[in-house]
Specification:
The chain is built from 11 helices and 9 strands. The chain is of the alpha+beta class and about 290 residues long.
Length: about 290
């Protein structure tokens, strides 16, 4: 379920607690957020935050007005001053989805329930990555999101000043090439999910003929091939939309088979069979 609270209801008290009395904060308007990719830039000097994000030291910070942002001004068609004080945290705040049903593959890797996730927008990620390259190690560019999704928790952590300790902060460079961040605890621990890439292939029969022609029988090991195919199915289903009925059914059946079937080869075989049945596809041996 989507968080009960709005993004701003979490973002404003979070920034206040990150500053811890410091006044150096810049919150660009919508036009500049769309060109820098951030909700806020702050100077954070509280050491526990930098320990949470596993940053080796408190970054020295940058004065944005001294940095050349020609690409931004060119896009906007105008120029304007930027903050003249130091900033060392550039943050894009997200609103979490609270989840209960864990994908089998992530459950086997230790994901607990409940857990949370947020989507990564490609254009936003590109802007943040560009900003990070320009700032280098002088500042931390990251996403921030609550490790809770109910109003009651928001009010408690706001009153107790414990929002920072109950949020996830993940650097933008760790999410390059991904479309979703999944986590079950505060901090920087979680799973970055890759975005499937659409590829327009050749004619089916041409593809089959090419595969048969290049198939090397000496490399053919039925058990290894079955294992690889089954593992690929699990990976594809795990990276699908968590609301996908087909993907969840395939993962659930595989999990049930793991609990009752001792032979791994049989589990692999049934996983491929289930995938074929549920997706209404055919499993064919080419050679």
């Amino acid at each position: 379920m989507t968080a009960e609270f709005e993004e701003k209801e979490y973002e404003i008290p979070l920034n206040t607690q990150l500053l811890l009395g410091n006044r150096n904060i810049w919150t660009p308007g919508q036009v500049f957020e769309g060109n820098f990719g951030i909700d806020a830039a702050l100077e954070v000097t509280r050491g526990d935050f930098w320990q949470i994000v596993e940053f080796p030291h408190i970054p020295s910070g940058v004065i944005l007005n001294k940095i050349n942002f020609r690409h931004v001004w060119k896009r906007l068609g105008r120029d304007r001053p930027l903050p003249t004080f130091k900033l060392n945290l550039f943050l894009q705040v997200k609103r979490p989805d609270g989840m209960q049903n864990r994908p089998a593959a992530l459950r086997s890797q230790g994901l607990q329930s409940p857990y949370w996730r947020f989507e990564i927008k490609t254009h936003q990620q590109d802007l943040l990555s560009r900003l990070k390259r320009k700032l280098r190690s002088r500042a931390f560019v990251a996403y921030g999101c609550a490790a809770f999704h109910r109003y009651a928790d928001l009010f408690v952590h706001t009153e107790n000043r414990t929002l920072v300790e109950n949020s996830t902060f993940i650097s933008v460079e760790k999410l390059d090439g991904h479309h979703k961040w999944i986590y079950d605890q505060p901090g920087s621990v979680g799973f970055a999910m890759s975005k499937p890439e659409f590829i327009r292939g050749e004619n089916l029969f041409d593809e089959i003929e090419k595969t048969v022609d290049t198939f090397e029988i000496e490399n053919d090991n039925p058990s290894n091939n079955l294992k690889a195919l089954s593992r690929m199915i699990i990976e594809v289903c795990s990276e699908s939309d968590p609301k996908s009925v087909l993907a969840n059914e395939i993962l659930n059946r595989y999990q049930r088979n793991m609990e009752v079937i001792a032979s791994v080869e049989v589990r692999w075989f049934l996983n491929v069979i289930n995938f074929s049945l549920i997706t209404n596809s055919n499993w064919m041996a080419l050679k």
